[in-house]
């Protein structure tokens, strides 16, 4: 309901989406209780922030990421409530963290040890943006294109803000009908970016086609081969990798090594661009030298050396002895822990 001060001035109209600032305002007015309607949300950023702060990654980078996460949340949520931010507002948020994360690639290692699916869509958007610019860089694309790819990754799932929270955050398997609704996020994203001040056709197409696969098995238009713009081919790799490596409401995360293996399989099956994937998995594997991980046997190991021929099966150290995962084919790196 509408909230008034003691002297009868309207303080907050009904249906206001409460933020911390509103709560402080209420406290200043000595209003200690209000009736609220709960909305489903992706949890808070608090849990994730606390975990990030505990990591031994570069503090400045972590702080930039946390700040960007909060801003992403309010920008994206705003769009779900009919705000109309222009492209510039999105790029301001994204480029600050992108620049920082390129200087401190250790951030990647930290991102995939986080537990819990809180704020998944916001984190996923930031991560995919960062990964897209990383892949563009590995492919030696020009600076302008690298910057474009970052933003394309950041905005690729914007259409999800128009999907009902019941479907978006459903813990179990989606029914066929729900999955059809979910697929619409690509079309919604296209429309939203097209209508955005400063949004371009190519940027909108990236949202539309990021679930297309080279063999025509994707959606929404079942494009094949060259019909899928190269930008979307990069986006598909970044999107899949981040999704596999993160905890979701319906599944636990998989290690970047297993994720890289899955990407490689998808590339061999003709779904992803094999040249792009091969650059990417090699680079990702190298990033994890020195990282600690848990094998499917439950043992803790340290990643020691990445092999040229099979970057996804490195040499690891297990309490004093070395194990070559190229030869121990039953062992897999299940989870990164630091
Ligand atoms: Fe998506």
From TrEMBL:
GO function term, MF aspect, one: hydrolase activity
Among Pfam families, the record links this protein to: HD_5
Q: Which residues form the HD-GYP domain?
A: 99-296
Superkingdom of this entry's organism?
Answer: Bacteria
Q: Which UniProt keywords apply?
A: Hydrolase
Query: Is Transmembrane helix tagged as a keyword?
Result: no
* Record bears the keyword Hydrolase: yes
Give the EC number.
3.1.4.-
User: What name does UniProt use for this protein?
Assistant: HD-GYP domain-containing protein
Organism, by scientific name, is Brevibacillus brevis
Provide the organism lineage as a comma list. Answer: Bacteria, Bacillati, Bacillota, Bacilli, Bacillales
